[in-house]
């Protein structure tokens, strides 16, 4: 086993670190307060190839392997989880699905513009009444001649109001997961309304939206994958997506560690830096152990994908551990900052708020445990 990075991986990580320090971290607090990142950042991510990692160059992608992808998400997540999430969704959940399941026409139409940041995508699975129980979704797509008419509501959709295309999961057949199909819906299609959700605890710089579909007409050529196979498209996207959430969590934990170490060596109480107190060192070393464990579990998923090994359970394991660890680590860092951690002039409060959603989306921690348990026992406990 070789945990050393290749030259290319080290170079892409350095590029992402430099970009994060220059273009993201200095603005993250302002974007959080304004409830929107500066959307110019999307074009910049595209120019650097960060929105096309792992996508073949013939479709406008920047190639690269899954570890390089994780390294970039770690760095972006260290700077601002809101920015990391934009990439995780547009590239990780949608562009990668188009690359895996799309026709030549779909790939040639969507991938170049998603990879260079001219267009953004969102992934519309969750509904008001179905979150963990996504297989019971109620949005319907009904055939109308050669077209489909989609009606229903999607909830909590990341990039929702910014996206040019939505990967929408809708019921085209029987109840349960076998009756679901996937569609690529341009977001300017008549009948599609988008409402931004405000007042989020974290990820405030990111657009999260409710999408409602009222007889939205798309041609059959908008269907991604076979009819009735949409749930497999969603689940395979999420299996890889959980790795990218885990990588984003590694970034949060790294930011928590960096901030805690810096503050503990500068802040003095009782005439000495607080770093000289064993109980403060305990908080810091707990963060460091979480960081190493989360990073190694995440890198293992990338390694499995590259070697063509099964990776879904490893991805659930990484996401479960890294998301819970990010909450713990951010909270420990806040403790090191004392009262100053509680105000947003310092970065750790935002880390706590941004970390909190990681245990909820792309499958809650409970859902990850059920997936891991099912793979170990063969028993479906959902
Ligand atoms: C900021 C944000 C961004 C999001 N982005 C997207 C997006 O881009 N696209 C998208 O499709 N969705 C998105 N989501 C939705 C997210 O994936 C769901 O919120 C998540 O899957 C949980 O669904 P729910 O909120 O309906 O909770 P529920 O499913 O109602 O769960 C509530 C509680 O019950 C528990 N629970 C449920 N079923 C079981 C069970 N069988 N056994 C044990 N416990 C159970 C859960 O773990 C949880 O604790 C986003 C959510 C947020 C908050």
Outline the structure in words:
The protein is 51% helix and 15% strand. The chain is of the alpha+beta class. It has three domains: 7-120, Acyl-CoA dehydrogenase/oxidase, N-terminal domain (Butyryl-Coa Dehydrogenase, subunit A, domain 1, Orthogonal Bundle); 122-231, Butyryl-CoA Dehydrogenase, subunit A, domain 2 (Beta Barrel); 232-377, Butyryl-CoA Dehydrogenase, subunit A, domain 3 (Up-down Bundle), CATH 1.20.140.10. The strands form three sheets. Strands 1-4-5-8 form a four-stranded mixed beta sheet. Strand 4 (165-171) and strand 5 form a beta hairpin. It binds flavin-adenine dinucleotide.
Set out the fold topology:
Elements: H1 7-24, H2 28-34, H3 40-47, H4 66-79, H5 81-101, H6 104-115, E1 121-124, E2 140-144, E3 147-158, E4 165-171, E5 180-186, E6 192-196, E7 208-219, E8 223-224, H7 230-266, E9 268-269, E10 272-273, H8 278-306, H9 312-337, H10 348-356, H11 365-377
Parallel strand pairs: 1-4
Antiparallel strand pairs: 2-3, 3-7, 4-5, 5-8, 6-7, 9-10
The structure holds flavin-adenine dinucleotide.
